[in-house]
Design a protein that fits this description.
The complex is a heterodimer. Helix content of chain A is 24%, strand content 30%. By secondary structure, chain A is α/β, with parallel strands linked by helices. In chain A, the strands form seven sheets. Chain A has a five-stranded parallel sheet with strand order 3-2-1-7-20. A five-stranded parallel sheet of chain A has the order 9-16-10-11-12, covered by helices on one side. The longest helix of chain A is centred in the middle third of the chain and has 18 residues, at 178-195. Chain B is built from no helices and eleven strands. In chain B, the strands form three sheets. Chain B has a four-stranded antiparallel sheet, with no helix packed on it. In chain B, strands 5-6-7-8 form a four-stranded antiparallel sheet, with no helix packed on it. In chain B, a hairpin with a 6-residue loop joins strand 6 and strand 7. Classes of the chains: A alpha/beta, B mainly beta. Chain A binds chain B through residues 20, 24, 46, 50, 59, 61-63, 66, 293, 318, 320, 327, 370-371, 373-375, 377, 410-414, and chain B through 19-22, 39-40, 51-52, 58-60, 63, 67, 69-72, 85-87.
Chain lengths: 414, 108
């Protein structure tokens, strides 16, 4: 009998999570993780936050010695260059071909690049190596320009301010993160950054970059010229679909299309993480989520399905962003920002904005109320009925709105 | 990882202030401590998530598991072991309840 081999393509947390759960579930075949980066899997969210402002330490989902101890072969610094789904093999940048019984595509995403914005002093942030270069240059930069006030842009701006650097933040939309958070919460975020002396240029973008004698001179869409020592570009990401797409796998929503079990259109090929556009049974549609937590959970789910379980992935997606002392979190889907129910106070920067349809919570965005997000995450896909007045009433704990479970309350519990 | 008993039992809280299924963040001998009443048994842990050191008392305790509010790491409240992810654990401190209901913790 030959040993079954599972190849994980990608060196991020989705692949690490798949490896961990394969072993946890007793998969005793070969597991090979092929990762393009030199580092063993690590968490990316700290790269725009603690990694820049504190010690440049990587937060790892698994200790580096876990892999050898658990018979998981790490092929780091190696790129998967082609995939043969009929012959069940993957070609590597080393020239080798690696046969597989099952393959997991967890190739992630890469930063979207702005044409003409490349080279020394112009930073994109995705990898530990990117963050290391940015961190080194931030140490001596007096002023920086951040292009794009998405999560990466806002977090880098906050980190740079914490390091005592002057920041100009450009955002073509009227407010930071307006598309994700809606205009009202976007405006709160804009105030938070303005108060920390970030120069926010909303509704404005950079049309050209020139290298001056000291750093850069940026020309803006309003015709202004802005100087900066370095430039950080955070204008979204592009999923790394090419390996799968070139092999003929179906694509959707810009990613590799997978069903609720993580299966692509080719037998024995799965996908997880940023690259996966997965059918979500609770929504009845394909969604592609570019957040850390979903990548970890999808990796675990694919491992379960690879080891004989038949478990659909139907978890709620959830994300956080830390900026200054503020914690922003969200779960579910927001829908129409015009009809959200507010709990708490935007002025005091402690609030949750709920989206509701027919007495059910669809999603929530919270600033500095992470407990609300935890509660909503538990309720989202459980039948419940709430009113706008209940959600807005801070004296009523959200937990109290949770439907009663069958389990009897423990004696002595309130 | 658990703290060893050093005999320095310091007063942390009164048991009647910590109901079953509740938790509280307290400071004992300069150490931030999380007290949890798990079905009548009191547990004491360092009040920092092993992930990124956020305070755990802002999280959610459902009587059995503790979920860190920051990044949703989940721990078994009785043992302190990680549930998700499962390759971590909370740092625990020796803890006892006197006959008069005083919760005492040994932070070393």
């Amino acid at each position: 009998m030959t040993t079954r081999r599972c190849v994980l393509v990608g060196g991020g947390v989705a692949a690490a999570s798949a490896a961990a759960h394969l072993r946890k579930r007793g998969f005793d075949g070969d597991v090979v993780l092929v990762g393009e980066e030199a580092a063993a899997p690590y968490e990316r969210p700290p790269l725009s936050k603690e990694f820049l402002t504190g010690p440049p330490e990587l937060v790892r989902p698994l200790e580096p010695d876990w892999y050898a101890a658990n018979g998981v072969e790490l092929r780091l610094g190696v790129r998967a260059v082609d995939l043969d789904v009929a012959g069940r093999s993957v070609g590597l940048s080393t020239g080798e071909r690696l046969g597989y019984d099952d393959l997991v595509l967890a190739t992630g995403a890469r930063p979207r690049r702005l044409p003409g914005f490349d080279g020394e002093g112009i930073h994109y942030l995705r990898t530990a190596a990117d963050a290391g270069r940015l961190r080194a240059e931030l140490a001596t930069a007096r002023r920086i320009a951040v292009l794009g006030a998405g999560f990466i842009g806002c977090e880098v701006a906050a980190s740079a301010i914490a390091l005592g650097t002057r920041v100009t933040l450009f955002e073509p939309e009227p407010a930071p993160l307006a598309r994700v958070l809606g205009p009202a919460i976007g405006a709160v975020l804009m105030d938070i950054h303005s108060e920390r002396d970030v120069e926010i240029r909303a509704g404005e973008y950079v049309t050209a970059v020139e290298r001056g004698r000291h750093g850069f001179v940026l020309t803006t869409s309003r015709g202004d010229r802005v100087e900066s020592d370095l430039v950080v570009v955070g204008v979204g990401s592009v999923p790394n679909v090419e390996l799968g797409q070139d092999a003929g796998l179906a694509v959707a929503n810009g990613g590799i299309a997978v069903d609720e079990y993580g299966r692509t259109s080719a037998p024995h090929v799965y996908a997880a993480g940023d690259v996966a556009a997965q059918h979500h049974p609770r929504y009845g549609t394909r969604i592609r989520v570019e957040h850390h937590d979903t990548a970890v959970r999808q990796g675990a789910n694919v491992a379960a399905n690879l080891t004989g379980e038949v478990t659909p992935f139907e978890e709620a997606h959830w994300f956080w962003s830390d900026q200054y002392e503020h914690s922003l979190q969200s779960t579910g889907r927001m829908g129409d920002f015009g009809s959200v129910v507010l709990r708490g106070s935007m002025a005091e920067r402690s609030f949750s904005a709920f989206s509701m349809v027919d007495g059910r919570i669809q999603g929530v965005i919270s600033l500095n109320r992470p407990g609300d997000v935890l509660a909503v995450r538990r309720m989202l896909f459980t039948p419940h009925e709430v009113t706008a007045a209940q959600l807005a009433d801070e004296s009523l704990p959200l937990k109290r709105l949770m439907p009663r479970t069958k389990a009897a309350p423990r004696a002595g519990a309130r | 990882m658990s703290g060893a008993v050093t005999g320095q039992w310091q007063e942390a809280m009164q048991l009647d202030e910590l109901w079953e299924g509740e938790m509280a963040g307290v400071e004992v001998g300069g150490e931030k401590v999380l007290l949890m009443n798990v079905d009548g048994d009191v547990r004491a842990y360092r009040n920092r998530c092993p992930h990124q050191a956020w305070a755990l008392d802002e999280g959610d305790f459902d009587g059995e598991t503790l979920t860190c509010a920051r990044h949703l790491w989940v721990f078994d409240a009785r043992s302190g072991t990680g549930v998700n992810p499962d390759n971590c654990r909370l740092t625990s401190f020796p803890c006892k309840v006197d006959e008069d209901g005083t919760i005492r913790v040994d932070v070393g």
